[in-house]
Write a structure and sequence with these properties.
Low-confidence stretches: 6-12
Structural class: alpha/beta
Strand order of the largest sheet: 5-2-1-9-10-13-14
Helix content: 25-40%
Bound molecules: ligand FO1
Number of strands: 14
Mean pLDDT: 95
Strand content: 15-25%
């Protein structure tokens, strides 16, 4: 599989290394967990995509927030990457008997999250407030921020019409051919409390190996977020590192490579590096893509070539340590 791994045991996190990670679903949650394993909790902030959020059975569902928090709380179902370990499905079975929609699998324990989040938001709490409270109850010490408290549902333009994200991703299993995306009402969205402050104070920003189109772009598109990162890149040479979610033309999980193909772009680590353009100072790619290193460096990027597949919690931590050690400084 991976390439010869450098030893990272002697790596010590820099004292003032405040890290901000931008994350979407499974890949993002896993690297966030790797970072959380190796950093003091008060030095790591994870900003999470909310474009996948939707209302289902009248419940406000935030899949990426739940995936990140469940993973950081070590409560996650490690096979699927989403939902809870040890889940039961009695409610779903009863819904099925009622002829209700069951394409989106809501587990009995997971339902508590959606019920309580919905109740609190209907009582006037923001998604940020609910997230902070849930993290406390789940014992998540890392700061998890919603990218925005505004509803910015991702719409997917496909050959079967414009689909909501979960309709495309789960109900249609990513089969329709994609031609574009829209983050609805994004022009009215503002960064959630703490987001810009975290970016202003960051010593390193990491774009996790999530889907660039529908997990990272929806965060960067929120007013002020991309600009703040770019300003600090220019003014204080802030290191901004992306981890390619595409390895040898494919993803470990999810439709990112298929989306690139359908958008007329070659799915590759180089394409991902170009996707983020001037935002980056560094790029992490898998050893299977080592042949593309020179082309990525030609974009002016520092590169880290390593085994980017996170097979277990130790693998997540190793990748996080390598990124911090090799690309974490301004040098
Ligand atoms: N993904 C699926 O492929 N099938 C499901 O039935 C499903 C249910 C589900 C329930 C709660 C939750 O938080 C996530 C869930 N996901 C499911 C994953 C979700 O669609 C994706 O994690 C994100 O939206 C994309 O990263």
């Amino acid at each position: 599989w991976g390439c010869a791994l450098t030893d990272t045991d002697n790596f010590q996190i820099g004292r003032s290394q405040r890290v901000v990670a931008l994350a979407g679903g499974v890949g993002g949650a896993r690297l966030a967990d790797g970072l959380a394993q190796m950093m003091p909790a008060d030095q790591l902030t994870v900003i999470v995509n909310v474009g996948d959020d939707f209302s289902h059975f009248g419940l406000h569902i935030s899949p990426d927030l739940d995936t990140v928090c469940y993973t950081l709380a070590q409560m996650d179902n490690t096979e699927t990457g989403w939902g809870l370990a040890g889940e039961t499905w009695h409610t779903l079975e009863s819904l099925d008997r009622l002829g209700a929609e069951t394409w989106f699998h809501l587990g009995d324990h997971d339902l508590a999250t959606h019920l309580e989040r919905t109740r609190r938001m209907q009582a006037g709490d923001s998604l940020s407030q609910v997230t902070a409270s849930f993290c406390q109850h789940w014992g998540v010490k890392t700061r998890v921020l919603t990218a925005t408290d505004h509803k910015v549902p991702t719409l997917v333009y496909t050959n079967e019409g414009t689909l909501s994200f979960q309709e495309y991703f789960v109900h249609r299993q990513c089969i329709p051919s994609v031609s574009g995306f829209r983050f609805e009402d994004i022009e009215h969205a503002r960064p959630a409390p703490g987001v810009l402050e975290a970016l202003f104070q960051a010593d390193l920003v990491i774009l996790c190996p999530s889907n660039p189109w529908v997990s990272i772009d929806p965060i960067l598109a929120i007013q002020g977020i991309r600009k703040t990162i770019e300003d600090r890149r220019r003014k204080v040479d802030l290191p901004v590192v992306a981890v390619s979610p595409i390895i040898a033309g494919h993803t470990v999980k999810g439709p990112a490579a298929k989306m690139y193909q359908e958008m007329g772009l070659t799915p590759s680590a180089l394409t991902v590096a170009n996707h983020y353009g001037s935002l980056l100072s560094g790029f992490v790619m898998d050893c299977q893509d080592a042949d593309a290193e020179a082309n990525v460096q030609a974009l002016g990027l520092k590169t880290l070539i390593t085994d980017t597949i996170m097979r277990d919690r130790a693998g997540r931590k190793r990748l996080a340590e390598e990124i911090m050690r090799r690309l974490g400084d301004k040098r």
